[in-house]
Amino acid sequence: MEKRIWDVEGFAVRILWPDGRDVRGDKAGMPMYPYDRAAKNSTNVAAWREQRFHRAFPGFDVEVLDADGLPVHGNTLLSSVRDSYLED
What is the pTM of this model? Predict the structure, then answer.
């Protein structure tokens, strides 16, 4: 699931159980990320989380990660998250 989000959205995520524990990336029975096109760069992380992730994976939470593997704030634009992967 994380790989599919990476392939579509261009950023890494950490999928979490409601209690904050990490969901194993190879957990069986997880639905596929249903989107084929990336969300707009002008979308912030909080909106992406609500409009895409929670609709596709109710009952789970997600952290969007920058290139250093650190969670980003909900007000961060997806363009900034994606750009972090381009920086050296």
Answer: 0.91
